[in-house]
Amino acid sequence: MNKPRIDKCIVSFSHNRYRLRKEADTASIGKARREIALGKNGVSHLILRAEDDDIDQLKFLFLIHGIPIMCYSLANLMTSSLREIVVIGSEEVRRVMDLFLDIVGTAGKTIQFVHEDPGNLSLVNTLRLGRSKLSVDPAELVLFQPGDLPFMWDIEKVIRDKDIQNHNLILWLNSRHRMFPRIDEDGDTEFVRRNYHYRGIDEDANERHEIKEPNIYPINLAAVEPDIIELLHQTRKDGKILKAGFTKALTIPNRFVELLPVFAYHLWNFNADLKRFRADDTYQFGMHVRNFHRGASILLNTSTATKMHDDPAFVSDVDALEDWEDFEFLTRHAFKQHGEEGLTHIHPAGEILLRFKEQGMGRLKKQLPIYADFPAYLNAVYRSLEMDGAPFDNAGNFIKPARRPRCVEYAYQWYRQKTRPERRQRAVGSNAASG
To answer: Which of 290, 311, 371, 411 is the most buried (most CB within 10 A)?
Structure first.
């Protein structure tokens, strides 16, 4: 049995790089064009890195309301009950982190930094680097998450989940209709637009779920095999996860035999059962929830669970320019409603973030090239990815018109309502100041 809660976290401000900028842009533009041609719900011009960039096009360094995305993510973790945080990233990430902590404090946390390995940016190596800084009990889960979730601050339900004691991997799956229950009557209430390639059937609740892969992973690093983690991570977005799992199982004969009933049940039942909910559904991968639990636990050789949550902040990562726009619109809308303190009305760490913006960003503009003239830099990124219209004018003013104005208002109202009770429960500003 594992410890009943998580108090350690590995947060990654690192991801893979293409060899050439031209290759990265071609991949990003090609993906967006395919999504447009297919009429996808979420069109994404991905923010990708390249080895030959003069300025590292690292999404975690992008600014939202003049504040680095990575600072939002750090503030989220600092206002939780976590005790130890390991940050993995580039030299630029380290410099931002050091200045951020120097200004706002650590909130009583132990926060350590590890340089990414440019020669090996795989997930497995990132976990290994983070693990090297932590003293982890074999019966203990840690939280692993990427650092591009600027408003995902409500993580107590993850790190205090009752299933932590009995499972070594928990997948917090993004369920479209649980996060946006009114989308069938008002599509604009879905203020985070994503493509949901997976389907799940919950037999117990008699529900069909449109699912997107998780962005956070409570994991027992001593119990889950690293090569399988990497395999599942690499295939999570392209619908090949079932084939990848089947292929991997072939290399482990005893697990393959155990998995045969899982595959057989899936092949015989899933499509027929799915049609009971929607006859014309199209998807890349789907399974019954209980069958998936069984199969994943066999393949990983450890107990695995899934959670289909109702929190849009968990799916709202910043992978693409469209995602950056959504958050820029959200924070600017809050500014229009409440003035400079608008961020405090939609984010419980707003006071911390605004203090860093006031005291730290002037210094960062002199230290890091990406911030010397961020509006001009981002306009150039928009041009390189053939986006429609630049986000800033020559004076650095944000001029991009909202693609979905009602979605911005829904997002603002949702985050405002969510933040209000949290602000009463946590004295975020004083907590950070005392660090």
So the answer is: 411
Question: What percentage of the chain's residues is helix, strand, coil (to nearest 5)?
Answer: 50, 15, 35
Which tokens in the block code for residue 165?
């004691």
Give the three-class secondary structure for 345.
helix
Q: Is 63 exposed, middle or buried (0-12, 13-18, 19+ CB in 10 A)?
A: buried
Topology (CATH level 3) of domain 8-16+57-314:
Spore Coat Polysaccharide Biosynthesis Protein SpsA; Chain A (3.90.550)
Per-residue pLDDT tens for 221-263?
999 877 767 766 666 665 566 666 667 777 888 988 998 999 8
At residue 428, what is the residue type?
V
Burial class of residue 19 (count of CB atoms within 10 Å of its CB; 0-12, 13-18, 19+): exposed
276 close to 288: Cβ distance less than 8 angstroms: no
The β-bridge relationship of strands 17-18 and 49-50 is: parallel
Domain positions in the chain are 8-16+57-314, 318-434
CB-based contact 92:56 (threshold 8 Å) = yes
Tens digits of per-residue pLDDT, 184-215? 999 999 999 999 989 999 998 899 999 998 99
